Amino acid sequence: MRAMTPSPRRPVIAALAVAWLAPRTAFTQARQTPENPMLDDSMIDAEVPRFDPVPPLPATATPGKPGDFGFLDCRWRIRHLKRRGDTWDRFDGEARCWTILAGVGHVEELLIPARDFSGLGLRMLDVAQRQWSDHWVNAKSGVVTTPGQTGSFENGEGLFASTYDDNGQTMHSMGIWDRIGDGVCRWRQVYSADRGKTWAHDWVMHWRRVG
Length: 211
What we know:
Blueprint: E1 10-11, H1 15-21, H2 42-45, E2 74-84, E3 87-100, E4 105-112, E5 117-126, E6 131-138, E7 143-144, E8 149-154, E9 157-166, E10 169-181, E11 184-192, E12 200-209
Antiparallel strand pairs: 1-7, 2-3, 2-12, 3-4, 4-5, 5-6, 6-8, 8-9, 9-10, 10-11, 11-12
């Protein structure tokens, strides 16, 4: 779960910077492409944004494998839609992403100069359990969210869920990677207060590859 405010979490793994500078291990990633990968910016540009349905979590998750996040390896331009109370904030940003540990890990450096915000996504595959965990680091705090959102790729969509407490109420959150195609993808953050019966969108990112 991404947030623009810091909170107490474990220290960041310092070796990430070294991994970025070091030669990358070569491996092949077969992209998982849904039937309709094209992004429609009018959905987030509309005065009242339009959202695709939230897919259900599988009863039994598909086992994760090294390289599942390889589709993100490159530099991106990102259009953001972020909820601010009862209104929506729209702004641009960028990211660079790279694979580490021969596909067992993946790093995303997110930069949003327009909002003086930056952070790092760290995805790690538990090789024994064959399950991915997705962690977030706010640059202003420099610590890792724990536990991360856990999940897998189902029919070309990455579904990563977690729960948290909000003033005594159990909330469910999910990060969704979808519309994964040639040079495009989308990430959505959604919340539910009723165990996933209904979901509210909080943050949507339209990613387009730039290099």
